Amino acid sequence: MTITADAARQPIELGGATPVLRVRDMAASIDYYTRALGFRVDWGYPAEGDSFFASVSRGKCHLFLSVGDQGHPGSWVWIDGVDVEALHEEYRASGARIRNPPTNYTWALEMQIEDPDGNVLRFGSDPKKDEPFGSWLDMDGNRWMQMPDGSHQKVQAKS
Predict the structure, then answer these.
(1) Per the omega criterion (within 30 degrees of 0), is the bond before 116 cis?
(2) Where are the alpha helices (DSSP H) in the chain?
(3) Which of 11, 17, 36, 88 has its CA 20 to 30 A from that of 97?
(4) What gap in Å lies between CA 132 and CA 67, rounded to an integer?
């Protein structure tokens, strides 16, 4: 069998993804992400005057914030939180909007933080071994629990 040039070519490796979160008020969002969540502003566009597009980052996490037509209100992003319990304590002290505290799941120990525009940041770290799994808070505020048979059941409706 002869290997053609196309078959021998390696796929192009991609870089990291940067989610675009829609926001209503850039100044309020920048304040929240920097003051409450510990992000830093990388840049804003335009650089002079009122920016309508900005990049914020913390560690390896980068997010774009956009006023206007990019992104959708209420988007969800999963972020490697490294140590979610320590991050939870930091965010409690800073006044961040904790939507769901650290909860153990099969995939991660995870918490949900909400920004002023309803975007949800899911911070996760390794799940805790030998600890029970908790209920999941969905986008509508309903709680779901995995049943012993593997199915999921709503255990609390949004009040």
Answers:
(1) no
(2) 5-8, 26-31, 84-94
(3) 17
(4) 41
150: region left, alpha or beta (phi > 0 left; psi from -120 to 50 alpha): left
Q: How many residues does the chain have?
A: 159
In the chain, the amino acid numbered 34 is T
Supply the pTM of this predicted model.
0.88
C-alpha Rg value of the chain to the nearest Å: 19
| 3-state SS, residue 59 | coil
CATH topology of domain 20-156: 2,3-Dihydroxybiphenyl 1,2-Dioxygenase; domain 1 (3.10.180)
Measure the CA dihedral 34/141/107/113, to 10°: 10
How far is 39 from 31, CA to CA, in rounded Å?
A: 10
Residue 137's nearest CA partner among 88, 96, 90, 103 is 103
Helix (H, G, I), strand (E, B) or coil at 44: strand
For 58, the token pair is 């913390």
Domain ranges in the chain are 20-156
